[in-house]
């Protein structure tokens, strides 16, 4: 996979993560100074958003984050300090390791703009990687996918499965 920065095609490095695959664990230091390990099993659905530029955090994206932040963990990993303020406990500028592990690393200065939603079991259930750095994220699709992931209830075993029938 690749992204386009200033009309130049740049290949994304390391492993490409697909829907249905296990999310890797990543240790990050948040802007608050807290160290967190994110991306694996968690008590809430997680959304990982990578932003390449200081102006990438739009008002529309902030509205969706605000709407879902009580029922999910929403992390922003940015390659540049953001113009808009965000919760320092869920915001990191340490994008290198995250970007490499999630396959959105472009250069030492920038990562691709992306969203990964990870269910409580640590599985990637939604992925969006913006191909052109000048384009925006699909906010409606993210809102819908995050809502669906939060509302998902894992079904238990059925009597037939339990009995081995």
What does this structure look like?
By secondary structure, the protein is α/β, with parallel strands linked by helices. Helix content is 22%, strand content 26%. It contains 4 helices and 9 strands, in the order E-E-E-E-E-H-E-E-H-E-E-H-H. The chain has a 5-stranded mixed beta sheet, sandwiched between helices. A two-stranded antiparallel sheet has the order 1-2. A hairpin with a 5-residue loop joins strand 3 and strand 4. Helix 1 (59-68) runs parallel beside helix 3. The chain is globular and about 50 Å long.
Give a nutshell description of this structure:
The chain is α/β, with parallel strands linked by helices and 165 residues long.
Features:
single chain; globular; alpha/beta; 4 helices; 22% helix; 5-stranded mixed β-sheet; 165 residues
Strand order of the largest sheet: 7-6-5-8-9
Structural class: alpha/beta
* Amino-to-carboxy terminus distance: 44 Å
Mean pLDDT: 91
| Helix percentage range | 10-25%
Number of helices: 4
Largest sheet data? 5 strands, mixed
Instruction: Give the overall shape, derived from the CA principal axes.
Output: globular
Low-confidence stretches: none
Please state the CA-atom Rg, rounded to the nearest Å.
Answer: 16 Å
User: What oligomeric state is this?
Assistant: single chain
Strand content: 25-35%
Q: How many DSSP-defined strands? A: 9
- Order of helical and strand elements: EEEEEHEEHEEHH
């Amino acid at each position: 996979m690749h992204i386009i920065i200033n009309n130049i095609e740049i290949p994304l490095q390391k492993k490409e993560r697909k829907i249905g695959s296990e999310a890797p664990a990543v240790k990050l230091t948040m802007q608050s100074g807290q160290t967190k390990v994110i991306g694996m099993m968690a008590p809430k659905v997680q959304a990982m958003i990578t932003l390449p530029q200081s102006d990438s955090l739009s008002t529309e994206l902030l509205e969706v984050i605000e709407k879902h932040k009580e029922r999910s963990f929403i992390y922003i990993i940015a390659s540049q300090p953001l113009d808009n303020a965000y919760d320092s406990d869920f915001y990191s500028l340490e994008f290198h390791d995250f970007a490499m592990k999630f396959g959105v690393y472009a250069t030492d200065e920038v990562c691709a703009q992306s969203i990964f939603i990870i269910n409580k079991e640590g599985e990637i259930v939604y992925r969006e990687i913006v191909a052109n750095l000048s384009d925006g994220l699909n906010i409606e699709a993210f809102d819908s996918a995050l809502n669906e992931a939060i509302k998902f209830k894992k079904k238990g075993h059925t009597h037939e499965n339990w009995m081995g029938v």
